[in-house]
Amino acid sequence: MATTRRQFLALGSMAAMALAATACGGDSSNGESSSDDKGTTLTYWASNQGTSLANDKEVLTPVLADFTKKTGIKVKLEVIGWNDLQTRIQTAITSGQGPDVLNIGNTWGVSLQATGGLMEFDDAEMKAVGGADRFVKAALETGGAPGTKPTSLPLYGLAYGLYYNKAMFKTAGLTPPTTWEEMVAAGKKLTDPSKGVYGLSLAAASYTENAHFAFINAAQNGAALFDSAGKPTFTSTGVVEGVQRYIDLMQTDKIVNTSDSQYDNGTLSVTAFAKKKAAMIINQNNADATIISAGMKADEFGVVPFPAPKDAKKNVASHIAGINIAVMKSTKHKDQALKFVNYMTSEAVQETLGKPYSALPVLKDGKATFTSDAEELKVFTEVYNTRSEPLPLVANEDQYESSVGKAMNNLFAKAATGTTVKSADITSVLKTAQESIR
């Protein structure tokens, strides 16, 4: 669940002070206070989106204070790290003792829905938070299984893009790739092992990243990872060929350094890019500050959509990544919790938090604020709104990520040692992964 394991951008104290001012601008519909609201305290479990738990408190405190000022409803904030959040949520659902409102990784949406511990957003609840129509459709779909009422709503959006080094491309006489074939060709031209420079860097030992790209490449091939009955179809031709294409970036195209087989998180590949050891990376829009903090200037890199093969059946460039917000079914303050969800997903608050959390707007008419680069904003917004699909909306999606992602880790490790990874090898490990799904 990569969206839950991302390293988000730093926010200094000056930015936090600015938040206090911007958070108070703009109103939130359904934010009027009532006599029932006075004296009510909501418990809110926020996910760790900043550089530390303390940083998140610094970012969120003025935003929550503004909500209290508008409604009279107090909010008790607890920021929980990603290593603990899912376990805490599962324990809270089992015991019935937990927060009123909470953040979840959006890839957990269906599995947590299946527990029955989260409140459904039926017609009345959806109306209380401003209606379903204001959300990006694909983002809203992460909140529950197809044909069901969602039990979580989009809060922060992320999407993949292909970052490229402008100077390297210009010197080589290249233009940014628009197809997979162009990306590989550019990567080959820009690879110079004698200088330790490669066309592309991947987090090839990150099972979450690998699972995401198994999904994206399969989707480009028109293949699904689960059938309509929710049964895994990992060994289908489109899935196998998609994984092969991705592994071949290191194995046969040789535009990825074999040492990337040890990169177990996206920060390592981002740093390689920033240090000009790689001409391209495939990363989510929260990579900008990490790139800049590692020494690369903002005007030295550009972003285009992650390209599909020229004969792709679907022009998918990302999965719908991000964070959702939910209400516990056990809350004793349902009306107040809905007012809080409405506030957190309001246009004003979305714009306020979009910059420090490097998030894309989850609202159809939302304004992206994570960068001042108009072209980058355009690329990521287009990808998120029109070229992204949700990861499998099944209760055992987490098992898919773990089994397939780790299998791909091993395939990259083999390719790095010079062992040829064939289609039959991929089919074999995917069959094992498929049989492990319960």
TrEMBL record:
CDD domains: PBP2_TMBP_like (cd13585)
InterPro entries named among the record's database cross-references: SBP (IPR006059), TAT_signal (IPR006311)
Coiled coil ranges: none
Signal peptide: 1-25
GO molecular-function terms, A-Z: maltose binding
UniProt keyword annotation of Transferase present: no
Biological process according to GO: maltodextrin transmembrane transport; maltose transport
Pfam family of the protein (one): SBP_bac_1
Keyword terms: Signal, Transport
Gene Ontology terms: cellular component: ATP-binding cassette (ABC) transporter complex, substrate-binding subunit-containing
Membrane-spanning segments: none
Family: Belongs to the bacterial solute-binding protein 1 family.
PANTHER family on file: MALTOSE-BINDING PERIPLASMIC PROTEIN, MALTOSE_MALTODEXTRIN-BINDING PERIPLASMIC PROTEIN
Protein name: Sugar-binding protein
Source organism of this protein record: Acidipropionibacterium acidipropionici
